[in-house]
Write a structure and sequence with these properties.
This protein is α/β, with parallel strands linked by helices. The protein has a single domain (2-194), classed as Alpha-Beta Barrel (TIM Barrel), CATH 3.20.20. It has eleven helices and eight strands. α1 runs parallel beside α3, α4 packs across α5 and α8 packs parallel to α9 (168-177). The longest helix is centred in the C-terminal third of the chain and has 20 residues, at 196-215.
Length: 222
């Protein structure tokens, strides 16, 4: 399972990218507004930092507007992916853009039937929202598993991108479910590497090393 960072913050992207584990970026209008930057400028900057797919979302609500925006976004960088919502208009836009060999990430998916529709429209990625389903007492990770199984049985090549991840446990469950990608907020990404036993073990190793080096006799002067 590939790991994407869900952000529009360039400093966060640079930090995680330096780890050598980052495969792509997802953004949305909320994240862009949070950074207070020009949409096109920040997307192009991110595409220059990260080699993998960078999803940039349309803001129009009608098919014609989504298509117009999508065609423009697709010219910003070779690795940009147009992001469309899972609505009737979004499906129309996805079908149109995918026929022009433009990769589309269909977002805000909350059911297997929606995922099937997106795949048939030509989606490159489908983004089921795990955390938002958990918020209403539904199992978001179970939906990821269901979509993965459905796509496998139907020989569908659309990639399952687990989104709205809130905890490290959800990352593990999505990986076990067979998701192709999980996109994580910066906070959760940082949590993946942390474990108290790792910290305790490293502290003990360093203490032991300092003790050993302190006890070594000083070499006699010649």
């Amino acid at each position: 399972m590939l790991l994407f960072l869900d952000t529009a913050n360039v400093e966060e992207i640079k930090e995680i990218n330096a780890w050598g584990v980052l495969s792509g970026i997802t953004t949305n209008p909320t994240l862009i507004v949070k950074e207070g930057k020009d949409f096109k400028k920040v997307v192009k900057e991110i595409c220059n930092i990260v080699d993998g797919p960078v999803s940039a979302e349309v803001t129009a609500t009608d098919a014609e507007g989504m298509i117009k925006q999508g065609l423009d976004i697709a010219t910003w960088a070779d690795n940009v992916v147009v992001k469309c919502p899972l609505t009737e208009a979004g499906l129309q836009a996805t079908a149109h853009l995918s026929k022009k060999d433009i990769k589309v990430n269909v977002t805000l998916c909350f059911s297997a039937n929606q995922a099937l529709l997106a795949a048939r429209a030509g989606a490159y990625f489908i983004s089921p929202f795990v955390g938002r389903l958990d918020d209403i007492n539904q199992d978001g990770c179970a939906l990821v598993e269901e979509i993965v199984e459905l796509y496998h049985m139907q020989a569908i090549e659309t990639r399952v991108l687990a989104a709205s991840i809130r905890t490290p446990q959800q990352v593990t469950r999505c990986a076990i479910a067979g998701a192709d990608v999980a996109t994580l907020p910066f906070k959760v990404f940082k949590m993946l590497v942390k474990h108290p036993l790792t910290d305790a073990g490293l502290t003990q190793f360093l203490k032991d090393w300092e003790k050993v080096t302190a006890e070594q006799p000083v070499a006699a002067k010649k």
